[in-house]
Amino acid sequence: MSDAVLQTFPLGFPWQTQDPFLFCVYHLDHYPKGTETMGPDPKLLEGRNIGNDFTIKDGWRMYHGQTIPGFPYHPHRGFETITIVNKGYCDHSDSLGAAGRFGEGDTQWMTAGRGVQHSEMFPLLNTDKENPLELFQIWLNLPKADKFVEPHFKMLWHEDIPIIDEGNAQIKVIAGNYKGTQANEPAPNSWASKTDHEVAIWNIHIDANTEYTLPKISTLATRTLYFYEGSEIHIGNKKVTPNFGIALDPFQEVTLKIGSEKAHFLLLQGKPIDEPVAKYGPFVMNTDEEIQQAMEEYRLTQFGGWPWPYPDNVHNKEKGRFAKYPDGSLVEKK
């Protein structure tokens, strides 16, 4: 029903979100072949604003990277990052000593809590073909009671994430419960760790020229559907084109009629935390005074310092997918 649509809005950079989510960005970069040092050919960097390259040129961006695209070390406090890598790879390093290379469907869940530094770099591992990258990064808020919890690093490997196949639709259940299928446990202090908070993160893919019905829930929550790739869809008598977000009434089932191309969506849903939010860059607290305290503490402590040789640390080119945890334990994937 079209009255289930509360609002539609264009998708910018970042995407507009609703409480309990703070921020969502979608990165789609068609990176070229990589060099042996896992970056693009230096000749391709000419004419770019290296260190702050956010303008798509030739289909890709370097972001804050100098020779390898990505985000060298930077701090976070007071919230969580959930990084979903559908294509390509992300190299993670942090001030806890944790590290990882994840991608091709993996998700990393990191609770910043009282404070952590990390880097997120995008190594171009293929030297004989292009290196496409598609990822979402979602910021999920923490309530005041949990803003100073210990930082936590968790990997959700693609092989372990439930994917529901409904014939014409595939739903990847990264967080929440989909028709009785429960996602893997999130980080322990997450707002998503309590089922009555109804947090859901689903990546939904629906075949062209078919219909799909999004199930309703019975708990008050915000629900936003991001239409990031496809041709067009219809919800009742309302037409929606790609690169639009759709705020939905969670108490109603919603039937999507898909146009001539396969449609791709990200769904974010959750019970609002409903607390004041003060944000400044990578810090999210409840008051401006707390933001100032966070900045001062970071200046004095660097949230534990940086144990890696480079601010834009990347791992050996030959390494596969892996996670090294703060306690030294190691998980390696093929």
Automatic annotation (TrEMBL):
It comes from the Bacteria. Gene3D superfamilies: Jelly Rolls. InterPro entries: Pirin (IPR012093), Pirin_C_dom (IPR008778), Pirin_N_dom (IPR003829), RmlC-like_jellyroll (IPR014710), RmlC_Cupin_sf (IPR011051). Residues 62-140 form the Pirin N-terminal domain. Coiled coil: none annotated. Residues 202-304 form the Pirin C-terminal domain. It comes from Flagellimonas hymeniacidonis. This is Pirin family protein. CDD domains: cupin_pirin_C (cd02247), cupin_pirin_N (cd02909). Pfam families: Pirin (PF02678), Pirin_C (PF05726). Belongs to the pirin family.
